[in-house]
Amino acid sequence: MRLRGKLVAIVMAATGTALLLAALLLAALEWQRSRRELLADLEALAAIVADNTTAALAFDDPETAAEVLRSLRSKRHVVGACIYDAAGAPFARLGRPDGPRCPPPRSGTGSAFEGASAVFWRPIALEAQPLGTIVLRSDLSPVADRLRAQLLGLVGALAAAALAALLLSLRLQRVVSEPVGELAGVAAAVREGGDYSLRAARRSADELGDLVGAFNQMLEQIQARDAALLAAKAGLESRVEERTRELAAELGERRRAEAELELRNRELRESNRELDDFAYVASHDLKEPLRGIHNYAGFLLEDYAGRLDEPGQAKLETLMRLTRRMEGLIDTLLHYSRVGRVDLAIEPVDLGEVVEDAIDSLGPLLAEASAVVTVAGPLPTVRCDRARIDEVFRNLIANAVKYNDRAEKHVEVGALPAGTAAAGVSPAPAEGPVFYVRDDGIGIPSKHQQVVFEIFKRLHGRDSYGGGTGAGLTIVKKVVERHGGRVWLESEPGRGSTFYFTLHGGEEGNDG
Amino acid sequence: MALAVGPPPLAAQPPQAREHDVKAAFLFHFTRFVEWPAAAYPAPDAPFALCVLGSDPFGGRLDDVVRGERVAGRPMVVRRPATAAQAAGCQLVFVAEGEDPALIEGVPGLREGLVLGVGEAPGLLARGALIRFVVRDGRVRLQVNVQALAHTKLTVSSKLLRLAEQVTPAPR
């Protein structure tokens, strides 16, 4: 049921119930009053009859008494009237002889409702002398008639009142149902059209008005949120666009850089290959004539030994020595060049093993030089190029042995933990462990300590201290630096030298 | 007010006695339906005298009925005058059947209409009595003298009159 119907129904139910109750109450009251009036009527009749029959009783004239009683016929509701004499014997009566019998006489004055009739009795007295009793009996038709009339009237009044209530409530229910309907309408419109700019009109200052206000506020909030969402979305979209553009640009940049890098790499590789080829070819091409020279010198020495004098032979030997030396130089140069260019094969390498291998491979040299190499403590496993690091250790140990005057030479190889400060240069903690090769050799004066790392620079004569091309330390420096580390030395001439190197400059060793 | 006993139940009496019991009661009741003016009394404080002129057929009945009663505030007494002259000051005079009807004529005040004359004999009405007892069908009925009624100074209730047979006695 819609609200309007409900409101009207409520009012009608309340009004109807109230009216009905009032009507019933009135009817009940009226019924009671009718009964009282009936009795009062009977009382009055009895009084008149009594007064008029005193003489008849006094003078024993039942006929006259009956005559008086007959006058009661005009009162249709009186169905029986009886007069008793002072002895209680029936004296006169109204009604048919075969009609209902008179109720028995009663003393005093009284009334009663017996079944469907009302009874009234009183004494008939003549100046305080009781002569008899009159008993009147009436049916309840006056009450019924009255009640009927009353009810009819009430029904009519009820109907009229109900109609008035209906019309009024139909009219007045609008006070509630119209604002509610309006609000419902706006809500429906909002829901269907999705238009959150609609508002309901606030028409009263009661709970309905509050509801409308709250409703409007909610719509406002929704609107605001909608707008905020849209704005955010727009902002997001524009940011996304921007970012996409940026990314695209970056990507473009990156691609370009990559392309360029690729190009450079290719160029480098090309050039490396060319260099390698060149070096290889050059070394071969260079060494070939050298070999030839060497061989011919040998031939000469062998075949013409008889025809050459000693200075001549010595010259040929020198020639052979020189060619040998040049071959060595070419090889060293080739090796050095490769060390600088070829990719490092990085893998976890147990340096303890590497040092052992290096010592082993230097066995003859060590034995001949009466050198003892000790490894101080276990060496860690690090990521590096095994072959190259092996070369590093070999070079350093060989140098330590070669540049040593003592009868018994001592070389110590070890590792200092990361972060250890060494005199002169303290490595940063991120550089990893510091490896060292210490000797008790001849030492290097400080003014020469930079030069030793330059290629082919020997501080000493060609043939002194075991000879050598002077490239060993240069190669050590190259390898160490290619691993991202550093190499340096501490030395005291006459006491010994210690070469330090690290393999990592912070990150893992580079491999390219 | 004295508690009225009233006449005893009629059924208990033998028929003969009953007739006069009824008449005695009637006589008493007349006082209730008739008003006597002040002039009917010899004195303001005089009692109401119910007189039986001549023979008394009531026995003591009339005394019983009257005892303790009052009329208009005056006490009731029963007198039995032997002569009409002796009935002076009576307000109600009764003459029994056996008596000479002429007796009643001499009652002072009767002709003036100040005395209620009641009798049994037929000629009494012609002699000035107002009411006469007649017995019909075993019942005591009343006859009223219309002429006397017209002249009487007594106020007779219509209630009483309607019971009675209105009679115009033949002039004597």
Taking all Cα atoms into account, the compactness measure Rg of chain A is: 72 Å
SSE succession of chain A:
HHEEEEEHHHHEHHEEHEEHEE
Strand tally of chain A = 12
Shape type of chain A: rod-shaped
Largest interface: A-B, 18 and 23 residues
The biggest beta sheet of chain A is recorded as: 5 strands, antiparallel
Protein structure class of chain A:
alpha+beta
Average of pLDDT of chain B: 84
Low-confidence parts of chain B, pLDDT < 50 over ≥5 residues?
A: none
Major pleated sheet of chain B? 8 strands, mixed
End-to-end Cα distance of chain B, whole Å, is 44 Å
* Global structural class of chain B: alpha/beta
Key terms:
heterodimer, A: 512 residues, 10 helices, 12 strands, 57% helix, rod-shaped, B: 172 residues, alpha/beta, eight-stranded mixed β-sheet, 10 strands
Characterization of this structure:
Chain A has a 5-stranded antiparallel β-sheet. In chain A, strands 7-9-10-12-11 form a 5-stranded mixed β-sheet. Chain A is built from 10 helices and 12 strands. Chain A is 57% helix and 16% strand. In chain A, helix 1 packs antiparallel against helix 2 (62-70) and helix 5 (207-303) runs antiparallel to helix 6 (310-341). By secondary structure, chain A is α+β, with helices and mostly antiparallel strands. Chain A is rod-shaped. Chain B is an alpha/beta fold and 172 residues long. Chain B has an 8-stranded mixed β-sheet with strand order 3-4-2-5-6-7-8-10. Chain B has a two-stranded antiparallel sheet with strand order 1-9. In chain B, strand 3 (70-71) and strand 4 (74-79) form a beta hairpin. Chain A binds chain B through residues 52, 54-56, 58-61, 64, 86-87, 89, 126-131, and chain B through 1, 3-4, 6-7, 9-11, 22, 25-26, 29, 32-33, 139-142, 157, 159-160, 162-163.
Annotate the secondary structure layout.
The complex is a heterodimer of chains A (512) and B (172).
Chain A: H1 3-58, H2 62-70, E1 78-85, E2 90-94, E3 110-114, E4 117-126, E5 129-139, H3 141-172, H4 174-193, H5 207-303, H6 310-341, E6 346-350, H7 351-361, H8 363-369, E7 371-376, E8 381-385, H9 386-402, E9 409-416, E10 434-439, H10 472-482, E11 487-492, E12 496-501
Chain B: H1 15-33, E1 34-35, E2 48-53, H2 61-66, E3 70-71, E4 74-79, E5 92-95, E6 116-119, E7 131-136, E8 139-145, H3 146-151, E9 155-156, H4 158-163, E10 165-167
